[in-house]
Amino acid sequence: MLRDVQLAISQLDKRIDRLSKEVLALISKHPDLKRVFLLLTGIKGVAKTSAITLMREFLLLPPGLSHREWVKFAGLDPRTFDSGKSVHKKKRLSKAGNHYVRSALFMPALSAKQHDPYVKAYFQHLVDNGKRPLQAVCAVMRKLLHAIHGMLRYDKHFDNTRFYAIPA
User: Fold this and answer.
1) Residue-wise pLDDT tens digits, 12-50
2) Among the four residues 5, 112, 141, 156, which has the most C-beta atoms within 10 Å?
3) Burial class of residue 90, CB neighbours in 10 A (0-12, 13-18, 19+)
4) Domain extents for the chain?
């Protein structure tokens, strides 16, 4: 039984590799897709897999959506819970949006907070102001999403100095 599971896993790994190569070949053939792919992979922390997933989700959206609508689409918007006059819980992520976008942004946010000094400073600022580490990572995800929206809308490369101004 264990051998059968290992065989199935190896076959799935081979299929994933083959499909990834096909997707990258398709991206390299189309200049618009290649431009978007290069913009996304220019962000520290966003690698091929995350870029492909984000392209798959965002390139199908209508072009006129605002950054707030992208955040809502991803489910990274805060949701309040109020019930009458007495129940006022803390705000939480709505998670009503696309979980593929959230999962595609999670690892890049973790990587960026480790390797990009501006993202790291923003994360540390949030933690110092009382956010829990996971809440701060979700805030980094949201801010990365804002940056991606601006990059694709204005066809500009990621400028990490605009992510957060490090205090002197």
Assistant:
1) 999 999 999 999 999 999 999 999 999 999 999 999 999
2) 112
3) exposed
4) 26-80+94-162
